[in-house]
Amino acid sequence: MPRVAGAVVIRWLRPAKASSGSAGIGSTATNSTSAPSPAPDASPPRPTGSGVAQAVRSKGLDLARVVAAALDELDDVGLDAISLRGVARRLDVQAPALYWYVSNKRALLEQTATELWRTPIRAVTVTDGDAIPPWPELIGEYMRRLRASLLSRRDGARAASSAVIVDDALLREIEPTLARFSAQGIAPDQLVDLFQTAQHATVGFCINEQHRTTEPVDVAERAKRLADTPHVAAMGELVVGDADARFARMTDLIIAAGHATLDGDASAQRASS
Prior knowledge:
By secondary structure, this protein is an all-alpha fold. The protein is 60% helix and 2% strand. The radius of gyration is 22 Å and the shape is flat.
């Protein structure tokens, strides 16, 4: 069952078990004896055998179901052990049936990662008729939604950090938001720097948070060991203590840095004009 840390639901945070039959992101191993693994850059043709096609039709498969099954498989076995064969077993089909939707394991993981990004991205997109919130509110909301999404799945932060978004329709949804910020005088490079800093900080924080949850640090015992260095001992709670409080401080720091950068750039522009 999931447990709640502050307002964030953290699910399935036990460490992944090593598997000799599968590898991490980039591997194309399917652990399937019914079809050879595709080469890393190869995209095998969609299977045309009547048995595979019949299985796809009879099971009502589509990409959304495949991705949902992959996320559930991620919860059960972890990123290092996930495989096409395991996802296919969960859907009650043979691994070749998945090639109708994903060309190899990397493609499967990219679709899975895209799903983890979907909610936080949509949380900060606006339509042409919407009023856009101030950028500090948008950055803070993006970081909080991204953290919640990554922690909702076992190894979610690692999975999202190692793949790219492959849904062009999702990326197009960002366009009105970018256009509105541009109209407010925030240059594209400034906006990219702001969101990438927030994004990388959040992903890194969540990778550490998921690891710490599976291998927690005894802060009190650590403080006793370091009693002869009181300043170092006092840092323990700040470094590995309440994750919600630490994340809030990091969010505030990034927003403050964004203010300093944008205000400084605006002052420099006025001075040069």
